[in-house]
Write a structure and sequence with these properties.
Bact_Lucif_Oxidored, TIM Barrel, Luciferase-like domain-containing protein, globular, single chain, alpha/beta, 47% helix, 16% strand, 8-stranded parallel beta barrel
Length: 330
């Protein structure tokens, strides 16, 4: 099983945004040391507790502080941008860090309606145009526009020695079909979906249309997991992330609370029910429990790779969680 890292660059209650971003860099370094396949960082806009609105900027920083782990965006939210600019940016990264760059493409807004309007015009219209935006991006990356196309003479320079690897990220049947139609690798966000992921992934595999000789469907499953030496410790550490999510839904979540702060949070009956549901969509436990759960998901979803999202208050707890999982799984 291949395992990888998804990082949302969370800001803990005792950190600045700069602290959180430097911890993201250190996490990528740790992931490289532990044997993780790739490190992706997400794009969010004006969301309390998350420090990265621009993965492409962080990737240049992280690439300069690592040497072999694949690095990418999880995701670049394409409806906000012109495909040409995205192609230029990631071609530049792939020129600086050859054979290491992934472009994870998504279509979510990544923030509030107000932040979305401040960032881009006609976002919903661009969401509807997602198939065309994606097609243009792939043409720019592969330099294969039809000769009569208006952009046929435009190059997304610099042209790297190895084209960035493009993934489509999603949580629905629509994203799976779009990935299959374009012959793209597909990343399913199980940690943020209530859909039948196994069925969606199977549809992607069944409808995959290879664009190159010998090309096969490639699937990655993203899960939320927290691992510690004991189950009790993992449950305790996980409360910071869970309470932060509840606080955010109430409009009161600013940064990831400490374990002590989370324990003092007074839950309503409705929040207690919500918390239990949230825990069911996470993997929380000791190395034996987490490893077993990951292998079960791999079998159920027929995945090539598991990508793990871990949010804790303490950076040490986060790195330790990834270390324990790597030692058990790899």
């Amino acid at each position: 099983m291949r395992i990888s890292i998804l990082d949302q660059s969370p800001i803990s209650s005792n950190q600045s945004a700069k602290d959180a971003l430097y911890e993201s860099m250190k996490l990528a370094q740790a992931g490289e040391k532990f044997g993780y396949t790739r490190y992706w960082i997400a794009e969010h806009h004006d969301l309390p507790g998350l420090a990265c609105p621009a993965p492409e900027v962080m990737l240049s920083f992280i690439g300069a502080h690592t040497s072999k782990i694949r690095i990418g965006s999880g995701a670049t939210l394409l409806p906000h941008y012109k495909p040409y600019k995205v192609a230029e940016t990631f071609n530049l990264l792939a020129t600086l860090f050859p054979s290491r760059i992934d472009i994870g493409i998504g279509r979510a807004p990544g923030g509030s309606a107000e932040a979305t309007n401040a960032l881009s015009d006609n976002f919903l219209q661009k969401v509807y145009q997602m198939p065309n935006l994606l097609a243009d991006l792939l043409h720019f990356l592969d330099r294969d526009f039809p000769k009569d196309h208006e952009f046929s003479k435009v190059t997304a320079a610099p042209v790297p020695p190895v084209t960035p690897e493009t993934w489509l990220l999603g949580t629905s049947q629509k994203s799976a079909v779009l990935a299959a139609k374009n012959g793209l690798a597909y990343a399913f966000g199980q940690f943020m979906s209530e859909e039948n992921g196994a069925k969606i992934i199977q549809q992607y595999i069944d409808s995959f249309e290879p664009k190159k000789s010998g090309q096969l469907p490639q699937v990655l499953l993203t899960v939320s997991a927290i691992c510690a030496e004991t189950t009790e410790e993992a449950e305790e550490i996980a409360m910071s992330s869970l309470i932060w999510q509840l606080q955010t839904e109430r409009g009161k979540g600013q940064r990831i609370p400490s374990i002590e702060e989370a324990q003092k949070y007074e839950l309503t009956d409705q929040e207690k029910e919500k918390l239990n549901i949230m825990k069911q969509n996470m993997i929380i436990g000791n190395p034996q429990e987490v490893g077993k759960a990951l292998h079960q998901l791999q079998t159920k979803y027929k995945t090539d790779e598991m990508m793990i999202l871990t949010i804790t208050h303490s950076p040490k707890d986060r790195v330790n969680s990834y270390r324990l999982i790597a030692e058990k799984v790899l």
